[in-house]
């Protein structure tokens, strides 16, 4: 496998082009002033202004480059990944798989506590060697036809092997949870365990285990959750059927890319938070959006979702790797559906957080990783 060092270095001309496009945005009128139809124009204008002026990409770029990064050509595809080894040689190798709409940026506030736990109130035996790849199409890994979840999982496993990790743990949410499960199926006893991150949105879809065991009251509650999310899946319908059509807007308009992600951050984060910046640090969020913009990640992510939806699934297959769950945004039905017999190796529920715990409540996620994998030692 060809692995070469990678440094993020966005040309100044691209940064100036971003600012020019932001300043030249043709803004829609607000038909309503709330979030019921998407991101309100007034809010979008304020956020776009921050992105184009107060936000310092070069400082954020330097911060991202403080993490060692590489490109590995796997199965013909150049794949970007962050690899940070702990000073603790016996640390547990850990593969972190991001979801949608996210990227490796999501994990950047977790890397130091994971690799250097003593400096963050932990123990040396809690240390991890961290590998955080970018899914195909998500930023610095280019999009390519034929790359769905299973093929991506195989590529991630190949990278871990090439890095010398004979056994390792894996964790992720959303798409990353699917990748984690595929890695367990593929690599078998080379996997120490898998910690899945989830939230109430995970049970508001049709892709859940049978619910025959639920009481009438629980079925009513599930119907309420699904009804609340019934108008929330337009993004998925478009991207899994006509990804190229939405790709033009997301690639040509930075405001389209910005609001496409921000709307989901507002919808899917901790419901007690009123604004996206109440749930996620605003410049961390703009860093994530910037990686999408400079790497054409909107188009790439759309095509990955298309590939994932049209590739053969692993439905019905099981593995024997220890599996834990970290559930954010306290909802009792999540466990009733995903772990009805309470047989998972680990389950922890948090009132705080939502779909993006690595950005919302990274400390809680880190604590669960330490506890789960510590229990498997």
Q: Give the CATH superfamily.
A: Alpha/Beta hydrolase fold, catalytic domain
CATH class membership: Alpha Beta
Question: What is the tally of beta strands?
Answer: 9
Average of pLDDT? 95
What general form does the structure show? globular
Rg: 20 Å
Strands of the biggest beta sheet: in what spatial order? 1-2-3-5-4-6-7-8-9
Helix content: 40-55%
CATH architecture: 3-Layer(aba) Sandwich
Briefly note the structural class of the backbone: alpha/beta
The fraction of residues in strands falls at 5-15%
Number of helices: 16
Distance between the termini: 30 Å
Helix and strand pattern: EHHHEEEHEHEHEHHHHHHHEHEHH
Q: Can you tell me the number of structural domains?
A: 1
Largest sheet: 9 strands, mixed
Unreliable residue stretches: none
CATH topology-level fold name: Rossmann fold
In short:
This protein is of the alpha/beta class.
Written account of the structure:
With 377 residues, the protein is α/β, with parallel strands linked by helices. The protein has one domain (2-199, 214-375): Alpha/Beta hydrolase fold, catalytic domain (Rossmann fold). The chain contains 16 helices and 9 strands. Strands 1-2-3-5-4-6-7-8-9 form a 9-stranded mixed sheet, with helices on both faces. Helix 1 (12-23) runs antiparallel to helix 2, helix 5 packs across helix 6 (175-187) and helix 9 (243-252) runs antiparallel to helix 13. The longest helix is centred in the C-terminal third of the chain and has 15 residues, at 254-268. The relative contact order is 0.15. The model has no long low-confidence stretch (mean pLDDT 95).
